[in-house]
Structure formats: C-alpha cells, structure tokens
Specification:
Elements lengths: L4 H31 L19 H9 L3 H10 L7 H9 L4 H4 L2 H10 L13 H11 L5 H12 L8 H19 L4 H19 L9 H6 L4 H11 L5 H11 L12 H9 L6 H11 L13 H21 L3 H11 L1
Helix pairs in contact: 4-17, 7-10, 7-13, 8-9, 9-10, 14-16
Amino acid sequence: MAPSKSKLKKDGKETSVENRIKREVRGSTENEHKVTQPSSSKSPTVNKSPMVPSKRKAEASSSSPPSKAARRSSRTAPESHFEPLEILQLLLSPSSLSFCRPSDEVADLEARGSDLVTYSSSSFTPFEELACAVILSRPISHTLGLRSIRTLFNKPYELRSPRAMREAGAEGRRKALDQARTQHRQKTAEELGNLADVVVETIGDGDEDVNLERVRRDAGENVNKERELLKNSIKGLGKTGLDIFFRRIQGEWKEVYPFVDQKTLGALKKLGLPDDAEGLRNLLDENWKNLTIVDIAAEDDQGKRRKAFARILERAIGADLEKNIDKIKAEAGNSA
C-alpha cells in the first residue's frame, strides 16, 4: 500500500531537519580540525592561541637594553669628569660670578662700571649685611632682592649706615625701593628704618656704628645668644634672615664658623660637595695649599679660610637660585 501524500510531506520535513542537523555537526567538526592546522582561514569564530615569540626574537629582546636608558647614561656621563677640588677652585675664582648673578646685575655692571656695589662681589660691613638680610628675608625673587640692595647702596641713595638710613626717612627709603621696582616696598622701607633705630638705640654704639661689636659683647660671642638678641631686637628678621646674615658674617665673626644653612646645604649637595659644615671645612682645609685665591683679604690665614668658606657658600646658593648648577659642573669639568 503506497504512503499518503501527507505522510510523504511530513517525512520529507523530518528528513530535511535531520539533514540540517547533520550538516551543522559536520561543519563544527571540520572547524575544530582547522584550528590545529596552519590555515589562512579568515573565520571570525576561530579562537587563536597567544603568539609565542620565536627563539631568535626572544634572545634579541633579552640582550638589547632599552634605547632610552642608553640615551640617559650618555647625558649623565660628563658628571664624573670633575673632582670636588675643581668645584672649589671655580667657586672661589672670579669666573664663577657669571653663574651666580642675575642677568640684570650683569647688565648693570656693564652700564655703570666695576665700581658698582653688588651683593655678589662687594665686601659689606655687619650693618650692611644685616640690612641685606632684612631685604632678602622678604618673599621676593633673587633678582629683585639683589636689585634692591644695589639701588639702596649705590648713588644717589647710598644708605649704608644707620645715620644715612634714618636721614633718608620712610619717604627716601621707599623712593629707592620704587626705583628698584621690587615688591613689598612699604613694608621693607619700614623694616629698614626700624633696623637703623634699633642699632642706634639698643644694639649698637651710635648712628655711625656699622660693625655691631656691641652685639658680640652683649652675647659673649656666643652664636646662639647673638641670634636670639638680633631676633628679639629687629622686627621682621626671622630664621631665614638670620641664616642669611650668619652665613655671610662668619668671615668676620670667627665664633660663627663653620656655619651652613639648610638651603645652601641643598646647593652644595647638587654640586657634589659635602652637605654639612664640618665636611666642607675639612675639604677646604685638606685642599687649601692647592687652591689659588687672589682676591680675598684677611688679617691672617684663618681669617682668609673663613672668608673663602663663606664665598663658597654664596656662590653655590647663587648658582642654584639662578639655575646654573649644571653649568658650574660643566665648567669645572672643562677646567679639570
């Protein structure tokens, strides 16, 4: 008996479904085999294994240093071409001044001549050093501080004694600071007037006293007592100003030597010099006979060493403030 038409249609559908399932299974099986073959199939369904570098590439990678590291080492190499002695000699010589001065001071010297009084190269009395410390303890730049000092101490103002500072009055001091185009002019003018008054009336020996020996006598030449006396007497003179004053005055006041303030210690370290007072003094003493110093005047050899020590500090901090530490090291390397 022949099957009905409907039965054949139903059977046909079942056969079609079975065939489709078989094709899908067969296709899946073929794809699985293709994964293990070096085929160039572009099928997006294939999960490729992570690439493993060849032995040759791995060896090349492990033996070759990064190019950036090589470039860094070539740039830092010159730092090993100088010794501390070369740095000391350069800082003590006049040639280091160009690295320690603001550019406008260099221009001022060229315009007005070498007799111009400057903080970088002139010898100051203790009163002048104290006035400089008051100015530089204000929150102003290195350039503005040194310009203010040049303007106050040179013509036409020449405010270099307690008497001159007082006679100028607040208006005269303010006028000089206006000409210097500095900041905090009114406050600084007041503090300089107060300094002159205190020296005349309390810690000095009259309006022409620029040596401040009374401070040393009253403090028994004890550094801590000297600092305390000045701090309590002079308005606006805090730790920063005291550090500036004692860093420079140790060339004259032997009880201060050796002294290095924290800010200057950082500059010394950048230059490869000992970053403590005793270490720097020892280095200077050990190399003293090998150093050429032609422009430091002192009563005796110890006084000359103290002044040389103070100069090293001033030139180091000056170069750091002018961002010329690397130039100092390069110049020392060239002269080695």
